[in-house]
Structures are given as structure tokens and as C-alpha cells.
Design brief:
Layout lengths: L13 H13 L3 H13 L4 H21 L5 H25 L6 E6 L7 H12 L3 E4 L6 H11 L3 E5 L8 H11 L7 E5 L5 H7 L3 E3 L2 H20 L1
Parallel strand pairs: 1-2, 1-3, 3-4, 4-5
Helix pairs in contact: 1-2, 1-3, 2-4, 3-4, 4-5, 5-9
């Protein structure tokens, strides 16, 4: 048995509780995160503050350690799952309070490709950073992407491919966006093991993201620029 059992979350003050949430997220403890979110709500915390200070704060540490090779995919998936538990409680409350959105992303694996672990990880990490994520799943033809862009009006389109044979399909999607005159309305991020920076540039994507942690940093940066342009 660990010392975890000795910690009674409700007895911690706010600052200690948030620190404990960082640890619990890191360890992928979903029930503890759900309990802590409820405690903060009972103490009168705003849902948006719980999201940003506790959940996103904790996932930022997870993301950094994933990037630096201290944590690996299974641990990150556990952390993301714990965060989802907290998010499930906060989501309806965030909608009610009209909390500011960081941005919205449509993500999917391209036609012919059924790999989804990387895509799922990016989706979870993006949610962990406060983005709204619409996941189209695997094996998406260009029509699926175009319909989703029109319906969801996201800032970002994310595409992933794990096969060298399906990589070129990303260009089909981007070319179609250009043909329909909507390419400049979206930030296009691409990722997947066989891709690289050169490929991303060659097909006309805005950025290639090596992994989920990079995807989050890149998304924040680009959306920030987009909002600055619009308000300028």
C-alpha cells in the first residue's frame, strides 16, 4: 500500500489540493481527479479556473515529460484518461458559464489508414490544453474533412498518417481546400511517424508536428497568431 491512502483530499487547502491534482494526473488516478474537481467546485472555484489551473496545469507537466522522454505513451494515455474524468464534470458547467475557448480542432486519420493511437493522443493532449476536439476517427476521405470543416468551423485541421502509402492523401485534402478557396481559413497541422518537416512544407501544411506535445505547442502558437490577426 502506498502513502496515497493517507491523503484526504478534502483536508488539503486549495494550493495543496492543486499540487496533489498535478501528482494524481501524472499518475493517471482518475477517481482522485474527479473527487478533487468536485471539492474545488464545492469551494466555489469557477469551472474555467479548475480547467486551466489544475487540469491544464497538470497536463502541461505531463506533456513536457512526454516530450523529454521521461514519460511514455501508456502513461500519457492514463493521465489523459484521468483528465477526461475531470473534464466530464466541468464540460457542462463550462458551457453554462460561457468560458473562453482556446480554440477548436477537427482531427482524423487519412483515407486508407487505420492507425489511431497517435491521433488519439494528440486529441487528448489538445483537450488537456483546453481545446475543443472533434475526432473524425480513421480512414477519412476528403469529403469527411470538408464536411467537418464546414459544420464545425474549427481553427485547426489535424491529419495523421502512419503509412508511407497514405501520406500523399494529405495533399489531396489540402489541394481540395485550395480549390474550394477555404485553405487560408484554417491552420493545417500534420503528423505521423513517416512524415517530416520537408513533407509538411511540400504538401502545403502550416506545420508538421513530431509528437502530441509539439502539436499542442504548435496549435497554441498558431491560434494565438490567428486571433491577433483578426483583432488587428
Amino acid at each position: 500500500m502506498s502513502d496515497e491512502d493517507d491523503i484526504i483530499l478534502a483536508e488539503l487547502d486549495d494550493e495543496e489540493l492543486v499540487q496533489q491534482m498535478f501528482d494524481d494526473l501524472y499518475d493517471g488516478l482518475k477517481e482522485e481527479i474527479e473527487e478533487a474537481v468536485q471539492i474545488l467546485l464545492e469551494r466555489g472555484w469557477q469551472p474555467y479556473d479548475i480547467l486551466t489551473k489544475a487540469l491544464v496545469g497538470g497536463m502541461t507537466i505531463v506533456g513536457a515529460d512526454f516530450r523529454d522522454g521521461i514519460l511514455f505513451v501508456p502513461e500519457v494515455l492514463l493521465a489523459a484518461n484521468a483528465m477526461k474524468g475531470g473534464m466530464a464534470i466541468l464540460k457542462p458547467l463550462l458551457v453554462e458559464t460561457g468560458a473562453p475557448r482556446v480554440g477548436k480542432m477537427v482531427i482524423g486519420t487519412v483515407k486508407g489508414d487505420i492507425h489511431d493511437i497517435g491521433k488519439n493522443l494528440v486529441g487528448m493532449m489538445m483537450e488537456g490544453a483546453g481545446f475543443e476536439v472533434v475526432d473524425l476517427g480513421i480512414n477519412n476521405p476528403v469529403e469527411s474533412y470538408m464536411e467537418a470543416l464546414e459544420k464545425e468551423q474549427p481553427e485547426i485541421l489535424g491529419m495523421s498518417a502512419l503509412l508511407t502509402t497514405t501520406m500523399p492523401y494529405m495533399k489531396v485534402v489540402i489541394d481540395t481546400m485550395v480549390e474550394q478557396g477555404v485553405r487560408d481559413n484554417y491552420i493545417v497541422l500534420v503528423g505521423g511517424a513517416p512524415l517530416n518537416e520537408e513533407f509538411g512544407k511540400a504538401i502545403g501544411a502550416d506545420a508538421y508536428c513530431r509528437d502530441a506535445a509539439v502539436a499542442v505547442e504548435t496549435a497554441k502558437e498558431w491560434v494565438g497568431r490567428m486571433h491577433n490577426r483578426k483583432s488587428a
